[in-house]
Amino acid sequence: MKREYGQFCGLAAGLDVIGERWTLLIVRELLIGPARFKSLLENLPGIGPNLLTDRLRMLGDHGLVEQTSVAEDGRARLYRLTESGQELREPVLTLARWGLKFLDESDADGTTRAEWGFLAVQAMIVDDAVPQVDEVYEFRVGEQIFQILVRDGRVSFERGAVAEPALTIECDAGTFVRVGARLLSPFQALATGDVRIKGDPEAVLRCTLMLGLD
């Protein structure tokens, strides 16, 4: 039976929808991109199929998630966020940025995925430190490739490689989280070879400042 706070308050009403265990992590996965049930189950170890079904149904009932068919498999279903669900992007990124300070090395044995780097880098942006130079930074986290595009003082994010990035940063997922959580400084990671950077040193400085890693 679903529990509700019974309060005439926007925060309470929001938590009635997304406050149950696992719900925001499902949203996180769908912010990365649409996914099949099997993929969600694999990427959220510990949730179990019945609980995942329940949470997806609840998100669907509130208009945050919808199902679409898969072109190559008429029986398969793809889950994706609706426009209302996508409105959770900023709150989720803000919460992720806030949560980084609670990570420590004892958490490092937990599950991590390279795909989470695509959201993590968005959460790390310091708005006041966005460069006034138009350039693109490419990140290769594990097998995932994504980019930060800076244009006219605005930042956007895309998946995939870029032809001529101002710099390329390469590392594994665990190292990426450690640096973001300030468990490892960029300079330590460079010294050990856990992070590899190619590109213009001034672009490296601009990117580092923009990510709050100065």
TrEMBL record:
Domain HTH hxlR-type: 9-107
Domain of life: Bacteria
Pfam families according to UniProt: HxlR, SCP2
Gene3D superfamilies: SCP2 sterol-binding domain, Winged helix-like DNA-binding domain superfamily/Winged helix DNA-binding domain
Keywords, alphabetical: DNA-binding, Transcription, Transcription regulation
PROSITE patterns: HTH_HXLR (PS51118)
Protein's recorded name: Winged helix-turn-helix transcriptional regulator
